Amino acid sequence: MLTVFPSGPVAMPKFLGLWFAYLLLIGLFVAYLAGHTMAPGAPYRAVFRVAGTAAFLVYALGPLVNGIWKGLPWSVALKEAFDGLIYSLLAAGTFGWLWPR
């Protein structure tokens, strides 16, 4: 596989905007799942566990598919999964912190 970009400078604002939209979309679905799983006033650890698990499925396990189907080296796929673990912990902490009391 080969990804070809147009010649010239990289359109970083476009890519960052798309990444932010991606994060919001994942946050929306994690919020949907957490909202239907737990009531307002749920303990922080319960919210952290549910939101963190849902976010981990997307952020950390999703990139592993690239190692299977796209031939991405496993060392790179596992580094992406580790990044996903960090993202999911941040998302879980944020949901636990902001969960309605």
Q: What are the defining features of this structure?
A:
single chain, 101 residues, mainly alpha, 4 helices, 72% helix, 0% strand, elongated
Please describe the topology of this protein.
Blueprint: H1 12-37, H2 44-59, H3 64-69, H4 74-98
Helix pairs in contact: 1-2, 2-4
Question: What can you see in these coordinates?
Answer:
- There is one protein chain.
- The chain has 4 helices and no strands.
- It has helices at 12-37, 44-59, 64-69, 74-98.
- Helix 1 crosses helix 2 and helix 2 (44-59) runs antiparallel to helix 4 (74-98).
- It is elongated.
- The relative contact order is 0.15.
Offer a quick outline of the entry.
With 101 residues, the protein is an all-alpha fold. It is 72% helix and 0% strand.
List the helices and strands in order: HHHH
Cα distance spanning the termini: 49 Å
The shape is elongated
Radius of gyration: 16 Å
Category from helices, strands and their pairing:
mainly alpha
Helix segment tally: 4
Low-confidence stretches: none
Give the overall pLDDT as a whole number: 94
Major pleated sheet: none
The helix content, as a percent range, equals: over 70%
Beta-strand content estimate: under 5%
DSSP summary, beta strand count: 0
